[in-house]
Design brief:
Strands 3-2-1-4-5-7-6 form a 7-stranded mixed beta sheet, sandwiched between helices. 33% of the residues lie in helices and 21% in strands. The protein is globular, with a radius of gyration of 17 Å. It has helices at 8-18, 24-41, 52-71, 92-96, 111-124, 163-170; strands spanning 80-84, 103-108, 129-133, 154-157, 183-188, 202-212, 215-224.
Length: 227
């Protein structure tokens, strides 16, 4: 019978089996996060009726491969990264155990989910990783930029809204300078659309596919056209 809560060794074994091994420190943090998630999930419906192995194999797997994908994008330590519809902290919290670039904000409207993420982050102590409880369209109002309109460098989405609507929604929020255009990364079960199908003002930067839950999933990064 599977343990209700994973150990560091369990995570090391599970990540190797999925084809994206993690180191001991990362495994410790992932085990702590999953333990908290399963504990809270008994009282609120964060991820449905799932044990930690199912959550790891079907949801955390995205974060493992996403870390490698983001490492290939032109982001800096000063980049502002927004994770829309963060829910139970997926993919963002597991992602931040592996990928530490930029200032990362988990954006979530639902109060109980925001409360869970704050509780989990207080235990994991991940640097430059925070929760914004509120509507996505209001998140940039939270940042003080000395009078300049705040802009994001990266926005991530997994099923926050259909991608054509998403790109229209976030376009005003992203940096548009030609030397550092803002980007969106979409987690999808489908490959990216052909370039001619992308909304005006967007260019496909990079895409990849990876194994997950017995099939293939995709990341695609699109960038705004610089002004």
């Amino acid at each position: 019978m599977a343990h209700m809560f994973p150990s560091q060794h369990d995570i090391l074994t599970a990540s190797t089996r999925l084809g994206r091994p993690v180191d001991a420190d990362q495994a410790e943090l992932l085990a702590l996060y999953l333990g908290q998630l399963i504990k809270w999930n008994k009282k609120m419906n964060l991820v449905g009726k799932s044990d930690w192995r199912t959550v790891f194999d079907t949801l955390v797997v995205d974060s493992l491969y996403l870390a490698d994908f983001l490492n290939g994008l032109p982001l800096t330590e000063s980049s502002l990264c927004l994770d829309f519809g963060a829910g139970a902290g997926l993919p963002g919290i597991p992602l931040r155990t592996l990928w530490h670039t930029g200032d990362y904000w988990l954006v979530e409207l639902r109060e109980k989910r925001a409360l869970f993420m704050r509780s989990a982050l207080s235990r994991l102590k991940l640097s430059h990783t925070n929760v914004f409880h509120g509507r996505a369209e209001n998140v940039l109002d939270h940042f003080d930029t000395d009078g300049a309109p705040p802009v994001a460098d990266l926005i991530l989405s997994r099923a926050f809204m259909p991608w054509p609507k998403l790109l229209e929604f976030i376009h005003p929020m992203l940096r548009k300078t030609s030397d550092q255009p803002g980007m969106a990364v979409i987690l999808s079960n489908d490959p990216p659309p052909p370039p001619e199908k992308l909304s005006d003002g967007w260019v496909l930067e990079k895409s990849t596919q990876y194994p997950a839950a017995g099939g293939e999933r995709f990341f695609w990064a699109v960038r705004v056209q610089g002004e």
